[in-house]
Amino acid sequence: MSLEGEPEARPAAPARPVALVTGTAHGIGGGIADALERDGALVHRVDRDQADLSDPGAVAALLARLGPVDILVNNAGGVCGQVHQDLEAVSDADWRAVLDANLTCAFNCTRAVVPEMKRRGWGRIVTISSGAGRSVSLTGIQAYTTAKAAEIGFTRQMAFELGPHGITVNCICPGFVLSNPTSIEQWRGYGEEGQRQLLQGIAVRRLGTPEDIANAVRFFVSPDSSWVTGQVLSVDGGNALF
């Protein structure tokens, strides 16, 4: 850095960045991938049917096939079909399944893309956590809240570690989005009164859409956000205000 405090020259963003978006079978992941493609990126979509991202070997094989990645969106996750149980009834397998589907997948994918990002001096990593990671989960699934909170901590630590290499790392915490069969079933399960109460706790009085989350991702990977890293953005219609 110069004595005048001018920033050091950094490699420019690729003319057509290559993006890897995980968890794209439906909902938020698909919406993010669609938005990045419209913005001109070459997007690789990966879901659990294509690769077990909780397996480091499978992730390494995936990256060997795809080549270098400029943008990583860690969206894979979910509750693995689980419902709330009292803590003493939660099995070791259930606990590990949810942590692996969320936190371990994000760790494995981030670790795999970082070497090439460092080599080229440019990268964008966005992890999709959840409002549950900043508060509590409406599902009551202990492992889900824990994994999503850990993703926030992982984001901050990686932003600190990778910033000197021209890599920004940010996190988005969506509110209630009707994005997949699990969330649709959850919404229906609330019934008319429960749905009304949930909407009353959202400042803009509507549920989110995959496009709402995709727009936040688009900002974090754009040139306009080159001095933004380690941030956790709630995209929840103002639910976090209550």
Question: In a few lines, what is going on in this structure?
Answer:
With 242 residues, the chain is of the alpha/beta class.
Query: What is the ordering of alpha helices and beta strands?
Result: EHEHEHEHEHHHE
CA-based shape:
globular
Number of helices: 7
Q: Name the average pLDDT.
A: 94
Named at the architecture level, the CATH assignment is: 3-Layer(aba) Sandwich
What is the class in the CATH system? Alpha Beta
CATH topology: Rossmann fold
Major sheet: size, sense and barrel closure? 6 strands, parallel
CATH-assigned homologous superfamily: NAD(P)-binding Rossmann-like Domain
Tally the structural domains.
1
In the sheet with the most strands, the strands line up as 2-1-3-4-5-6
Query: What portion of residues is helical?
Result: 40-55%
Per DSSP, what share of the residues sits in E-state strands of 2 or more residues? 5-15%
Q: What structural class results from the helix and strand content?
A: alpha/beta
Radius of gyration: 18 Å
Give the termini separation.
43 Å
Any low-confidence stretches, pLDDT <50, length ≥5?
Answer: none
Commentary on this structure:
- The chain is globular, with a radius of gyration of 18 Å.
- Strands 2-1-3-4-5-6 form a 6-stranded parallel β-sheet, with helices on both faces.
- The chain has one domain: Rossmann fold (3-Layer(aba) Sandwich), CATH 3.40.50.720.
- It has 242 residues and is of the alpha/beta class.
- Helix 1 packs across helix 7 and helix 3 packs parallel to helix 4.
- It starts with 17 loop residues before the first strand and ends in a 7-residue tail after the last strand.
- The model has no long low-confidence stretch (mean pLDDT 94).
